[in-house]
Structure formats: C-alpha cells, structure tokens
From TrEMBL:
Record-linked PANTHER family: 3-HYDROXYACYL-COA DEHYDROGENASE FAMILY PROTEIN (PTHR48075), 3-HYDROXYBUTYRYL-COA DEHYDROGENASE (PTHR48075:SF5)
Pfam families in the cross-refs: 3HCDH, 3HCDH_N
Annotated 3-hydroxyacyl-CoA dehydrogenase NAD binding domain residues: 11-184
Role summary: Catalyzes the NAD(+)-dependent oxidation of L-carnitine to 3-dehydrocarnitine.
Family: Belongs to the 3-hydroxyacyl-CoA dehydrogenase family. L-carnitine dehydrogenase subfamily.
Principal place of residence: cytoplasm
A single GO cellular-component term on record: cytoplasm
InterPro entries per UniProt: 3-OHacyl-CoA_DH_NAD-bd (IPR006176), 3HC_DH_C (IPR006108), 6-PGluconate_DH-like_C_sf (IPR008927), 6PGD_dom2 (IPR013328), L-carnitine_dehydrogenase (IPR026578), NAD(P)-bd_dom_sf (IPR036291)
Catalytic activity reported: carnitine + NAD(+) = 3-dehydrocarnitine + NADH + H(+)
Xref: Gene3D superfamilies: N-(1-d-carboxylethyl)-l-norvaline Dehydrogenase, domain 2, NAD(P)-binding Rossmann-like Domain
Protein name (database record): L-carnitine dehydrogenase
Length: 319
C-alpha cells in the first residue's frame, strides 16, 4: 500500500555523493527520517560532513518542525536502506548500465508500490527501467545542485511508468518543499539541462575560436541576462522586448534574426504553429499581469538582485 505523499515519514537515499548527499540534507531539513547507503568505504564520513556544511544554509531557509541531522541513519547494504522506505531517491553516478542495475535491485528490495526516483541528469527512464520487475513505479526526479538549496526538480516517467506514480512523485516533492515541473514527455537532458547545455556549448565554441575569454563569458551572464533570469525566465523576458505589443511584436520584429549567425545552433522555422504556441504560452505565463506589471516586476527584481549581490548599496529601513 503506497503511503500518501503528505504522510511520508521515512525516505531512503541510495548514493551519497554530491547530489545524493544534497538530497539527504534537504530531506533531513524537511523533517524526514533518512536512511542512506553508498558503497564507498568512506561514504558515511563524507556524507555527515556534507550535511554539517549544508545545515547553516538550511537553517537560514527555515527548518521544518522536528528537523534534525540526528535523524540520518547510514546502513551497510542497499537492502537495509530501503526495507521500510516510503520513498526512494537514487543518485548513483551517471552510467547507464549502473543505473539500470541499481534500479532493478531497488525494485526488488523496496516495499511493493513504493515510488523509486532517479536523480539522473540526462537518461530517459525508458532506457533505465528495462530490467526491473515492476517498472511502473520508476520515475525520474532530476534535481539541481545543490538539491538542498536549488528548488527545481523535473519529474517524468518512462514508457512503462504508471501515470499515478508520476503524479504521486510530483506531489511528494511539492510536499517536501521542491518546485516541480512535471514533464509530459521524455527528452534526453530534460528541460533545464538542455537549456544549460546549449549555453555551455556555445561558450566552449567561443573560447575555442578566440571569440571570448572565460571571464567575458561569465560576466556577460552575471552582468546581463542572468540578472533577469533569477526571477523571470527567457520567454517572458523576451516578451518584454516587444514593448506593449508583448511577445507577438517581439517575434514580428526580431523573428528574422533567427536566420542570423548568432549561434551555432540551428534555429527552428518560426511557422504559425510555433509563433502561436510562444505567444499563447507567454500570455498564460503572465497570468493576468499586463506588460506594465511585468516591467515593474522585472525592474524591482533586478534591483533586488543587484543589492543582494553587493553591486548596489542596501537601502536603510525608513522606520
């Protein structure tokens, strides 16, 4: 019988490196009992150091009632880790055969019905669930480093994953304090990694060709679009480039530049279907806010980010 997401009390974390350890710290801070396993001989010492190092930041974020690093138990075998788990987070190294074997072992050892999520940063679950006896409960729960600090987790199932397992996992992560994107379909790398990777590849091209230095590339983001991306994604940001006409005007005005050699990526054809999908998507994301509202929100956000990073003096409290 699967425990309701709101009632989960014990989580198992299998793999306790940087990502797995970050998950451990996050779940502990949210008040869960956490059982962890990692085959490395010094895994427990490293894990406890990671949790101790993360705890001050977690304390600033706000600990859940009863949260304590003392609620961590490190065990000697995979089977011990999951024997009474109500949710399992796998965070093994990014090797397909290793992931496939580990998920098969977890499926065999975990209580029936318990959802098992993989932290994979790129593999589709369809490719990882091929040898599991019950692939219906295997999902991807892709976090961002460090998982105890970055809210996002992307959830998606494989071809043999049950829809209710995906729904359950998404709700559990929300209860556990994460910001969840539930994807409708698998795509290698998921959403955010594909966007990161596009930027990363273009940056490497520019360094390789002597077009920009590493510092220039980093500064171009931290002093430019990164200030806006901290609170408003690239789509709404571009919509504001269209002024009062929003995304529709932006596409009409800048759409032809998709054919310009501004990147080594091949741009899709800006046909009516794509045009309409982007415009309608921005309207939906705006959620009733006018262009003027969004501009004011953007301006406040940039100023807040500049102040938070020490690039503008903090204002005195007028009281």
């Amino acid at each position: 019988m699967r425990t309701a997401p709101e009632n989960v009390r014990r989580v198992a974390c299998v793999g306790a490196g940087v990502i797995g350890g970050g998950w451990v710290a996050h779940f502990l801070a949210r008040g869960y009992d956490v059982t962890a396993w990692d085959p490395a001989p010094d895994a427990e010492q490293k894990l406890r150091r990671l949790v101790d190092a993360a705890w001050p930041a977690l304390t600033q974020l706000g600990l859940a009632e009863g949260a304590s690093a003392d609620r961590l138990t490190v065990v000697a075998t995979l089977e011990e880790a999951v024997v009474d788990a109500e949710f399992v987070q796998e965070s093994a190294p990014e090797k397909l055969e290793l992931k496939r074997d580990l998920l098969t072992r977890l499926d065999a050892a975990a209580p029936a019905g318990v959802v098992i999520a993989s932290s994979t940063s790129g593999y589709p679950m369809t490719d990882m669930q091929t040898t599991a006896a019950d692939p219906s409960r295997l999902v991807v729960g892709h976090p961002f480093n460090p998982p105890y600090l970055i809210p996002l987790v992307e959830v998606v199932g494989g071809e043999r994953t049950a829809e209710d397992a995906v729904t359950w996992a998404s709700r559990f992560y929300e209860v556990a304090g994460k910001s969840v994107i539930t994807m409708n379909r698998e795509v290698p790398g998921f959403i955010a990694n594909r966007l990161q990777e596009a930027l990363w590849r273009e940056a490497l091209h520019m360094v390789a060709n002597g077009e920009a230095t590493v510092k220039e590339i980093d500064d171009s983001i931290t002093e430019g679009p990164g200030l806006r991306w901290a609170f408003m994604g690239p789509m709404l940001t571009f919509a504001l480039a269209g002024g009062e006409g929003g995304m529709a005007h932006m596409l009409d005005h800048f759409g032809p530049s998709l054919k310009s050699p501004w990147t080594r990526l091949e741009a899709p054809e800006l046909d009516k279907a794509l045009y309409d999908a982007v415009v309608e998507g921005c309207d939906e994301a705006a959620d009733g806010r006018t262009i003027a509202d969004l501009v004011a929100e953007r301006d406040r956000g940039v100023i807040d980010v500049l102040r938070a990073t020490g690039r503008l003096p903090r204002q005195e409290d007028p009281r």
